[in-house]
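Forwarding these from the shared drive since the link keeps breaking.
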Amino acid sequence: MQDHGQNYIAGEWVDGTSEIENHNPSDLSDLVGVFAQASADQLDATLDQAQRAQAEWAAYGLERKQAVLSAIGTEMMARAEELGTLLSREEGKPLAEGKGEVYRAGQFFTYYAAECLRQLGENADSVRDGVEIDVRREPVGVVAIISPWNFPTATASWKIAPALCYGNAVVWKPANITPASAVALTEIISRQDIPKGLFSLVMGSGRDIGQRLVESPKVNAISFTGSVPVGKGIAAAAIQNLTRVQMEMGSKNALAVMDDADLDLAVSLALGGAFGGTGQKCTASSRLVVHAAVHDAFVDKLVAGAQAMTVGHALQDGTQIGPVVSAQQLAENLAYVDLGRSEGAELACGGVRLEMPHDGYYMSPGVFLNTTNDMRINREEMFAPLTSVIKVDSYEAALATVNDTTFGLTSGIVTQNLARATHFRRNARTGVVTVNLPTAGTDYHVPFGGRGDSSYGPREQGKAAAEFYTTVKTAYISAGTPM
């Protein structure tokens, strides 16, 4: 099935000034669709309309907003198989992951539907007699959302849902690699009881549409997920208008495997964390920090497990690892393989392009051995089905290695020692810590974010989202002289 995807501008589906083709990375002969690219004038028009629509939406009653978000989420969950298939077709993740992502995205909307009814303020007595204080949160205004291709529906949803919940307008620029999923989500939102122009989809390049969006004084807040260099560029542009920003960027997550670890569990966590989603996750386990006492046994099981994983078409039964998302991403991945070898790392398995029945961007999962934490393959985010094993002699060395990074999104430890697990949980310098669980995989009702180069600004998800999508107003009220 092919599709012609339009932009959703100021409440209308419209063509752009140009189009791009979207091909299935599992089978390059499969044209997913042709998608419009917005113009600068169209972006300006939607920002003007968003400002008017936001004021109208903010005045909607709580139950009316709640019904809108609930309807979006319910439909997404009901259509998880259909929309998940579309997602996997254009992005390349295995079908089970695509379906799961869409279903989880629906849960973000139903969660924030409930949050619409929980927007409670605070009150206090003033230090002055006869004065009361009311503290409440109000919408921040027009929110620009710039989302990535690796979780095209889920990441966008965990930004869009709270933005709407707290009374804001949304202008969404998705990644150009995954436009079909963006159009599908927008179509659901467009049918809801919302003011014209409250939600808009503007597809286009980051260089053109994205840059103009973040530079606009009509935008009150920007939520971005992507690379560190792009994030820093957005922050530099946003500060010119004092626009608030929330950014989730790179990572170099470590899973520490201790000498008392259940090795079968540790290997399972490492394989899933490193290679799930073809390693194209900001929470991927790209550094495996392994205690010397179990290193050799762990490596044997890890390499055997990696070699046994099935790489294939995203929509094919039994596929565990789909294709890389694009030719550019594949080239970057293979360049990191060459870099690792040049740094002295041993490539124990994988790391090569695969020839398959369908012409696509297939790559076998690769494991680097004999690596040190100062190698570039252990310092830079690769976003690839590649992971590195780093041998350490003690728990203290493992913790130090985990923390020796400019990033700080997720980290994990595999151990049966409660005291050690507690110490790690308290001292790992990451925004998310896991114990006997993979570094990838988080819940939607609690905060998500990192430290260092991984994140900037308030946390996403759960009640923490209110910190970004609202502004606080403090009111002082004099009751006057009692009768």
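-- next protein --
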Amino acid sequence: MIVYYFTSAEYGIENLRNRRLKVSDFSNVNDPFELLGIELQDKGVRKTVNFEKSQISKRYGLLCFSEDKYNPVQWAHYADNHKGVCLGFDIPEKKLKKVKYVAERLARETLDQPDCNEKLLTTKFNHWSYEQERRLIVDLNSNQINGDGLRFESFSDEMVLKEVYIGCKSELKFADISSAYKSGNNSVITKVTRPSFRDFRIVWDQSKKSERT
């Protein structure tokens, strides 16, 4: 399935040039409730859940994608206020975890369920639902750490770049994209975006056509 990764112009070009995405650390994501979706009033439950969080964070990182490339809030929050880019990747659906958005935290009995860790990995407060998030969970042991202590996941047969959308406020040009990334068979399409005339969405600006690289 095609899923979308929003980022700034600077990092977008860097990602394209190096053919990789930065793996996020669970302890540094923007949601303080990450991996803490269970109700924690009981001290014992709190201790257990925090232990599970620490174990998951030590072993796994994540790449966050969205099912929706049109949401202007996504562009504002994650693509530098529409000055960045949105990268569309074809990833097998079975490799992606669909985030479930809930109004209330999960019951403490969740700890006794065999899919407890799965629920910890995929449960978020429903105010985040606009993200329509799909997660690619990455085993940290499979990634090399660079000099800055960062890990990256390389583009591959199971994470294939298909689309590049340039933000409606971006200064990037088609030439910037094609100079940073060449597919070899013109399989990646680049489009410029604009606000829709009809509704509150970001859409392809067809007046600027598209280019392949």
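The longest helix spans residues 43-59. The chain has one domain: 2-212.

- D.
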